[in-house]
Specification:
Aspartate Aminotransferase, domain 1, two-stranded antiparallel ribbon
């Protein structure tokens, strides 16, 4: 980290607890709206840097549909260690591989309002349901 980055982060440090609390509230609202996270905060004081959720259909289709509505999503860790040929072991880490192929992260940050989370949740669940009906 260079000196400029350190200075900027140092200036933001007083806001960290507030931003973490707001992200926690947004994550709990996603959960209350029915969007299940891969991560869990039960019994832990999680900062909710990301809101990863498992997708039943095709993640890229869902991401594109949400993008058309102005909802940004993320795809974290698209290539896992077990997928690197020198580290691959058949049948090893099956849960990690499945989650990596079937997840997206929804927007999460101190900028989100309750109505934003409701908007995102509603469209995510509707599109997820539409994909499941189409695939059946």
């Amino acid at each position: 980290m260079d000196e400029l980055q350190a200075a900027i982060l140092y200036a933001k440090l007083p806001f960290l607890n507030i931003w973490n609390a707001v992200r926690r509230q947004a994550a709990h609202r996603y959960r209350d709206n029915g969007v299940v996270s891969i991560a869990t905060d039960e019994g832990h004081d999680c900062s909710w840097h990301l809101y990863p959720t498992r997708v039943q259909g095709e993640p890229e289709i869902l991401r594109n549909q949400l993008a058309e509505l102005g909802i940004s999503t993320g795809l974290h860790y698209p290539k896992l260690l077990p997928e690197i040929p020198s580290l691959f072991q058949p049948g090893f880490w099956p849960n990690a591989l499945q989650i990596a192929r079937n997840h997206i992260t929804l927007p999460l940050g101190p900028h989100l309002t309750e109505s934003s989370v409701d908007y995102i949740s509603g469209h995510f669940l509707e599109m997820e349901n539409d994909q499941n009906v189409t695939e059946s």
